Amino acid sequence: MINGKEIQKTIFAGVFLIFASLILIFYTEESIFLKIIGLLGFLYFACALIATLLHYYYPNSKSIEKFYYKITGKTEANQSIDLNKNFMEIYNDNGIFTFNDNSFSIQIENSIKEINWSEINSMLAYKIDLYATDLITLEIYCSSNFNFKINEETPGWFRFLENSKKMFPQITENWEMNIAVPAFETNLTLIYDNENRDLETVTKKLKEKEGSL
After folding, report:
1. Sheet with 97-99, side-by-side order of all strands
2. What keywords sit in the KW lines (predicted)?
């Protein structure tokens, strides 16, 4: 399955190469050979771009998957290797976080904020419907009146989740999977609360304090 970052790179590269092919077709009037190369390049890169886009939006279609592997020259095996490699790089990246024994720092724009794990009051998770995909989001509320929001595309997302589960054993180990199903549902869930309050109580307090959730 192709991820969001890969599709962005593919679109950029595909458009650039298609544009380069068009230059060969229309601006090399004296060379039939270059025109042919440009035409072949245009057809190939256009087909590769279409195949990649179709495979991204319809990952479960076997016919599209077969077309994608054939036109790009990739195989299911090396595609899996690439995905595993990319995932491990993302998983082990601290991203915007720096983790210490009892605290962590988070970089927001040009400032860095250090937070003790004991300062965290509540953690709420939910999904945002992006039509083609869902985006799992986590809101963290701290006693210092500093609140922040991250999602599964935030650099350091996996490291933060791993460290939060170590610091707060009461957090359900695979809560992300529970949020993910069913698809396109918000599934607002209280992941952690330092007073062991329920979701209704926490959301009510937040609405009273902030005016909205």
Report:
1. 97-99, 103-108, 111-116
2. Membrane, Transmembrane, Transmembrane helix
Give the tokens for residue 137. Answer: 């989001």
For residue 56, give the nearest of 88, 87, 79 by alpha carbon: 79
Tokens of 157: 């997302």
Looking at residues 51-68, what average pLDDT do you find? 73
212 phi and psi angles, rounded to 5 deg = -160, 160
Global pTM exceeds 0.70? no
139 - beta bridge partners? Answer: 124, 149
Residue-wise burial string across 86-97, b where 16 or more C-beta atoms lie within 10 A, e elsewhere: eeeebeeeebbb
Is the Cβ–Cβ distance between 167 and 151 less than 8 Å? no
The tens digit of pLDDT for each residue in 97-110 reads 999 999 999 998 88
Using alpha carbons, select from 70, 72, 69 the residue that is nearest to residue 48.
Answer: 72
- The CA-atom distances, in angstroms, between 123 and each of 57, 98, 152 are 32, 19, 15
